[in-house]
Amino acid sequence: MERRDFLAATAWTALSASRVLGANDRVVVGLIGCGGRGRLVMRGLLQAPNTELAATCDVYDPNAARASKDLAEGRAQTLRDFRRLLEIREVDAIMVSTPDHWHSIPTVLGLEAGKHVYVEKPFARTIREGRAMVQAARRTNRILYPGTQHRSAPHIAEAARIVQSGEIGDVSFVRVWNSGNIAPNIQQKVPDSDPPPGLDWDFYLGPSPQAPFNRMRFLTNYRVFSDYAGGYITDYGNHRVDSVHQIMGASSPHTVSAVGRRLCPDNAGDIFDLHVATYQYPGFIMEYAACWVNSHGIGGRSPGMRYYGMRGLYNRPHGFAFYGTKAALYVDRIGYEIFPEPEPGTPYASAPAAESGLKYRAERKMFQGADATAEHAQNFVKQVRIGTKGAVDEMVGHTATATCHLGTIAAKVGRTLHWNAQKEDFENDAEASRLLTRELRKPYDLIRI
After folding, report:
1. Where are the alpha helices (DSSP H) in 337-445?
2. Which of 36, 146, 154, 226 is spaced 20 to 30 A from 341 at the CA atom?
3. Tally of structural domains, the chain
4. 2-13: pLDDT as tens digits
5. Do 130 and 100 meet the contact criterion of CB atoms below 8 Å apart?
6. What is the DSSP secondary structure assignment for residue 220, as one 8-state letter?
7. Nearest to 426 by CA among 406, 399, 397, 398
8. pLDDT tens digits for range 206-254
């Protein structure tokens, strides 16, 4: 079906979706991309009152069937082509939890079909695709809600209050880190093979380049290939960069420089497994570091605290830290800690504070929070019910993901880049500007970017 024919066939659904749903009206949703993450988030979404899953859609038939069975006791219709889901009049909203390279197309077409859209992070595979999604949301007046669940975590909001109130002093330096260990051969290459039964491999590749089936390009491992994803920075880093924006009250950097390396070249994929990017924002500098040959990360552990992704006794693999003149604030998905600075004049070799009477510039604090994925998905349903956008909107998702892409582009070109956030383009750098987009493979070039 051609794009214009599809839009003509579904234009009436935009009118049906214009209504404001009451508290007792059932919100009917569809799931596009039924892998583990999609099922997990949809399970949380369905905890919202009066919410029903009408259809599941995946290019891998067993995934769609499993989602219908697990989430709707087999009552949800199972589909392979997401365009068929968008034709279902009763569907008010869709969740897009496909691999990253498919985020933009069903999102834009879903909005144009009158559906509200929850799209998993990263917002889009390229910055230009993200802009197309933003424009579609504004053109259709539909809700486009990014799956950055830190935005629904109370402890992240409290961290924003702490920083913006001056509790830890002036913050001019922020660190973000993601760590793991794939050395020496945790993600081994495997030979190409035939696709498994029930998989439409060409549809899976979609707008990305043609490639033979390889199980490392499918399901849980696809993000190590730049054909389908933007690397660790748009995967793990996306949430934390978004939280830096929330906590610092920022949206876009103006300068970025970066380096990237492949330290495990014999592993599958082509993304950087060592990636360090430095961003200049008005008023502060942010450093992002992904190191995938050592899982320690930054900072030690405090007794009794749990940290996101922790393994063994020592590592703290994911987090983001704000270095203020009074204290450092360490945050991750499930908690935060404040480490105060000593008052001036304190000897560095002093005994522990409890024994020496040291004075500090701020109060030591620890808070154990929790993952807010389910709450975030339910907040999307709340927005759908009232029919208006909240604080978490399309620009929140777009600017966080765009910032991550800037770090990858800077590493690829190997020089400092100057970013014009209003124009969403680099200043006088045609080579870098070409990396803001990609060519969509036919016949899956279903949107204009």
Report:
1. 353-356, 373-386, 394-413, 430-434
2. 154
3. 2
4. 443 434 333 333
5. no
6. G
7. 406
8. 999 999 999 999 998 999 999 999 999 999 999 999 999 999 999 999 9
